[in-house]
Design a protein that fits this description.
Layout (H helix, E strand, L loop, with lengths): L1 H57 L20 H13 L11 E9 L5 E10 L6 E2 L2 E2 L2 E5 L15 E11 L4 H7 L7 E11 L5
Antiparallel strand pairs: 1-2, 1-6, 2-5, 3-4, 6-7
């Protein structure tokens, strides 16, 4: 009889310990899964900002590649559209998990030596299917603010830098947000992600 009571006490203790450990274990498991998926989104966003900055650094006035004068191509009015198109191609490439509708802004600007925004910033926002036409297809983004004109981007010494920033809202794919809310984390449904790439415009002299 004493052995039976002791065994029941041990079983009850094990159940209590499991009940205490399980939420922590689930939190760690969901955190690992969510981090992996968020990291995949971040890699794509980072690559997209680099492609946009690389395209913008190539389309500068002074090397004969920017349409600020008659007969030049591409036309100056399409420079930022080419930058956004480069970003969008990466974000919609096969294997990408990024949802364009969650990209709140694509920002194009002249960057300081530290990569910060300076002066006016050109802001593009999500407008599915009604943006400028690039390579026969309309972009899913349109300019909502424009102040840094393409023809002012001169790649003579000292060479300026162009920056491209993407602001994105990552949505949780697991119940992690709800669990964090249970522990006092506010019940978040996602994370705000921002990635910035800056590239110098190659000087011509």
């Amino acid at each position: 009889m004493r052995r039976r009571v002791a065994r029941h006490r041990e079983e009850g203790q094990a159940i209590v310990e499991l009940a205490l450990i399980m939420p922590v274990f689930m939190l760690l498991l969901l955190g690992i899964l969510e981090f992996g998926m968020a990291f995949d989104h971040l890699i794509t966003i980072s690559y997209a900002s680099r492609e946009g900055a690389r395209t913008g650094a190539a389309l500068v006035n002074g090397g004969g590649t920017l349409g600020c004068s008659a007969g030049q191509s591409p036309n100056a009015a399409s420079v930022d559209a080419q930058v956004v198109a480069a970003v969008e191609r990466v974000l919609t490439s096969p294997g990408s998990q990024v949802a364009l509708s969650r990209v709140s802004q694509i920002r194009i600007y002249q960057a300081t030596s530290t990569g910060a925004e300076t002066g006016s910033v050109n802001v593009w926002t999500y407008t599915p299917g009604v943006g400028p036409v690039v390579d026969g297809d309309p972009l899913d983004f349109s300019a909502s603010a424009s102040g840094w004109t393409a023809c002012s981007r001169v790649n003579t010494l000292p060479a300026p830098s162009i920056g491209v920033t993407i602001r994105y809202r990552y949505a949780f794919n697991t119940p992690l947000g709800g669990i964090l809310g249970f522990f006092g984390g506010g019940g978040q449904t996602g994370l705000d992600v921002t990635d910035r790439s800056v590239m110098a415009m190659n000087p011509t002299q």
